[in-house]
Task: inverse folding
């Protein structure tokens, strides 16, 4: 018997995130670079980066030992070439020793071996679009005509991904939509309305009382509702850097690019130095790296893990994994 075949479209724009780099010498002032999209199509995410990093540094009064932390904002503008130039300027002209965070990968996955053929799926189309694109009617019409059962992809540009979802709803597309990153923008429902109903996403949640209180503090201080991905992860990574810097100072008696790099190699990249709930992490249970996983953290339910959510009427419910779910998956 011939296996039934399904069509799936894979749409990739850009993706996400993290961590350390190097630069020049410093005295008692330590210049810490923070890279993010502070202008351009993902500027709202950049604003959330700034708020979270500032709050983390205010908690320690911008001091680690005898060092005063000076933040240097490195604007990627959601553009790989401009990001490279801005980073070089920060290192060569502004004295940045270490840089953390980031939102975009310069190139999305060139090849995705999803294994669909072996399970009866067929990739109908693989398409890429720029951060600034907001007209998806021709692309969506192609998917509809091709009978796509699933649309799966990601974009870090809120205007792009919200336009995609609204237009898919407008043309009556019945495909299951996996919009990885829609919830990175806390105002996703304002931007999509009920067009986001049934859409799947993978993002962290503000599940603990500490995380929820932190979100209230961010709202009161900066005037926006923080997203767990943009604000929460950047806050956790800023605090992870603080822990790394404190350990470096304890081990080497100084903060500079070489001493920090040594601790990254010997302790962070080997899983000896981690950051988790016991340290005050808000989003993930534990941020832990090993030689086998670097540059990625260990992906596990008790480590770094994004549950699958489904949106409905402005609310999100976990539908996977089963032991986390708060609702069953609902098809259109």
Result:
């Amino acid at each position: 018997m011939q296996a039934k075949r399904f069509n799936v479209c894979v749409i990739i724009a850009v993706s996400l995130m993290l961590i350390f780099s190097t630069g020049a010498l410093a005295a008692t002032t330590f210049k810490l670079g923070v890279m993010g999209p502070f202008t351009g199509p993902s500027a709202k995410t950049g604003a959330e980066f700034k708020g979270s990093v500032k709050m983390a540094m205010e908690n320690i009064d911008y001091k680690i030992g005898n060092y005063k932390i000076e933040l240097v904002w490195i604007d990627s503008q959601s553009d790989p070439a401009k990001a490279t130039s801005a980073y070089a300027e920060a290192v060569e002209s502004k004295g940045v020793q270490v840089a953390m965070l980031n939102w975009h990968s310069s190139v999305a996955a060139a090849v995705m071996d999803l294994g669909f053929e072996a399970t009866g799926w067929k990739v109908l189309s693989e398409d890429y679009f720029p951060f600034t694109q907001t007209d998806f009617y021709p692309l969506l019409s192609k998917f509809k005509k091709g009978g796509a059962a699933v649309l799966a992809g990601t974009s870090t540009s809120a205007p792009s991904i919200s336009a995609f979802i609204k237009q898919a709803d407008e043309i009556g597309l019945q495909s299951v939509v996996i919009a990885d990153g829609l919830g990175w923008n806390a105002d996703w429902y304002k931007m999509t309305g009920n067009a986001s109903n049934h859409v799947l996403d993978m993002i962290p949640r503000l599940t603990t009382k500490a995380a929820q209180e932190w979100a209230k503090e961010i709202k009161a201080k900066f005037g926006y509702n923080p997203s767990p991905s943009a604000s929460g992860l950047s806050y956790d990574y800023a605090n992870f850097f603080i822990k790394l810097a404190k350990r470096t100072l304890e081990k080497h008696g100084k903060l500079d690019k070489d001493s920090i790099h040594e601790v990254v190699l010997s302790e962070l990249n080997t899983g000896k130095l981690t950051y988790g709930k016991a340290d005050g992490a808000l989003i993930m249970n534990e941020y832990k790296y090993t030689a086998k996983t670097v540059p990625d953290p260990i992906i596990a339910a008790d480590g770094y893990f994004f549950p699958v959510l489904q949106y409905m009427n402005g609310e999100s419910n976990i539908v996977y994994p089963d032991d986390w779910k708060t609702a069953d998956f609902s098809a259109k």
